Amino acid sequence: MNTKTSEYSVNTKEIGRKGRKIFEAISEQIEKEHLGKAIVIDVETGDYFIGKTGIEATKKAKEKYPNKVFFLGKIGYRTYVSFKGRR
Q1: Are 15 and 23 in contact (CB under 8 A)?
Q2: Which DSSP category does 15 fall into?
Q3: Which residues, at least 6 apart from 6, have a Cβ–Cβ distance to it below 8 Å?
Q4: What's the pTM?
Q5: Are 38 and 53 in contact (CB under 8 A)?
Q6: What is the Cα–Cα distance from 45 to 25, expressed in whole angstroms?
Q7: Could you tell me the maximum CA-CA distance found in the chain, to the nearest angstrom?
Q8: Which of 5, 12, 50, 74 could bridge across to 80 with cysteines, CB 3.0–4.6 Å?
């Protein structure tokens, strides 16, 4: 899926694929100290930002890269959020 931002087109599937790869590579290094915190990754540079929430981590990332789209993860978990419906 391509998403149009104000400056360029972004392939969200590619960001997801690259982001998961970087996340898996660094997870052992950061998991013990930051379990349950949010991580935002710039998939082009590999730079990452950690915060208590996704908003906090994204604000840190946007300070350095104001016009980029990032990968968002939760340290120690496969997904940042999950949705459970009624049965």
Answers
A1: no
A2: H
A3: 67
A4: 0.81
A5: yes
A6: 14
A7: 44
A8: 74
What ranges do the domains of the chain cover?
2-74
Q: Looking at the chain, which runs of residues are DSSP E strands?
A: 2-4, 9-11, 38-41, 48-51, 71-74
What's the CA dihedral at 6, 8, 11, 12 to 10 degrees?
-30
Q: In this structure, what are the phi and psi dihedrals at residue 80, rounded to the nearest 5 degrees?
A: -75, -45
| CA–CA dist 28, 59 (Å, integer) | 24
SS3 label, residue 82: coil
